[in-house]
Amino acid sequence: MARNYQMVLDQSTSGTKLLLLKDGRIVQRYDKKHKQFYPQNGWVEHDPLEIWDNVEALLTLLFQENSLEYSDISALSITNQRETILAWDKTTGEPIYNAIVWQCNRSAALCESLIEQGMEELINQKTGLRIDPYFSGTKVKWLYDELPEVAEKSGTGELAIGTIDSWLIWKLTEGAVFATDASNACRTLLYNINTKTWDDELLQLFSIDHKDLPEIRKADSVFGAYQGIPIIGVMADSQAALLGEGCRAFGDVKITMGTGCSVMMQINKQNSLRDLRILTTTAWQQKKDEAYALEGIIRSCGDAINWFSQAITATDDISERCNKVLLKRKEESVFFIPALQGLGAPFWKNTETAAFNGITRTTTQEELLRAVLESIIFQIKAVLDVMEEVSNQPINQVFIDGGVSKNRPLMSLLATLLNKEVIVSEVEEFSALGVAMLAEPTIQWEIPQERFQPSIKQKEVYGTYQKWKRLIEQELSDSDGESGE
Length: 485
Prior knowledge:
Layout lengths: L4 E7 L3 E8 L2 E9 L11 E2 L1 H18 L7 E8 L4 E5 L9 E2 L7 H9 L3 H8 L8 H11 L1 H6 L5 E5 H9 L6 E3 H4 L5 E2 L4 E2 L1 H6 L9 E3 L4 E5 L2 E8 H8 L8 E5 L3 E8 L10 E7 L4 E9 L3 H11 L5 H8 L9 E3 L17 E3 L7 H27 L5 E5 L6 H11 L2 E5 L4 H10 L9 E4 L5 H26 L2
Parallel strand pairs: 1-5, 5-14, 9-12, 15-21, 21-22
Antiparallel strand pairs: 1-2, 2-3, 4-7, 6-8, 10-11, 13-14, 15-16, 16-18, 17-18, 19-20, 22-23
Helix pairs in contact: 9-14, 10-12, 12-13, 13-15
């Protein structure tokens, strides 16, 4: 029997999606959310067993509802949230602790200690990243330091430390394969993007045993099998979206607007570009192709909207309110410092806290929500300005994907702010489509796009952005002064 279908498992911060594809089309999509745990202020965790249970439930549902056999599927591909890390016992198959999510700031003190020791330049040159709790390495160090079971099992062959993709591969293959790809490995602070291997000096710095880490395979390799279905194509979600958007030429930019926001510029093989305001990262490593990218990480995108709908106004129609609020004339100069989990690129202040500025007695919820939405695109503008400077490459257009891109008034405002064409696709599953290309590279996706052009209000919008940026810079200057830095 011909294998006519593909499956893609898209495991993200907020939930898991399972997509069924046929002939370049998404036939079905199934979703299942998982809980977010906040055991302490600034800590964020997921339950790995809940995530795996959700994966199993979605797989069962897909086969039942579509009357399919395992033999009908040509490949299963995986794309995933990137820096989230977990440890598990290979013997029992049980997690030793919850997954520590990319948003988690529990390793902030360790990061500050490493920076004070002068380690940032070494790590930046080797990894293209900076020392920040966002990345996995200091989270792994926390596991070794705080959990005796992790330290005891290290180096014995019984311990597995990996990102979510490696956990899913291990579970899907019933423990036969413990592997990852470079797009995930490069987010750990342990992977050298120059030598394309786990780095011995960095492993020593973080006191991590090489035996505890997964094998690194090319993204389009076979990663074992699930019920006879080959697992082909594994890639971190933001990099997969870059591939899915077709961003292959130097200077091509895609922006994924999900829980957080990843702004990524294709730089082909120029992996020596360095600037601490943004990251240099592996875009992909395939058997016959490799590429690198500049990236700006924005911590709060859709997450800021979710927070507003939960903490400021209990509402079930937040998407509709977000669409409407930008269509009204701006009445007040209210600004939002979007540091719900600290500030990412290009400011990088993980101890910064969120705040509204400019509130008066007449300020409404709509003005506050508008300020939240504006802060998302203001951060994107700040990142793109740095990318143009570092790459010496002007950006003429940007490709947008992710759930927040459904807000068309926001996309129009972004085009005006950037003074660039903004191209928004009608589907949001570009991470899934990108990783599916690794298994079926000949498939051509037919995806409608909507294009937004700058309006004549560019100077007005840019002026508002400048006020916001000065506010952020002043806030960071004040907080540095108070901390004695």
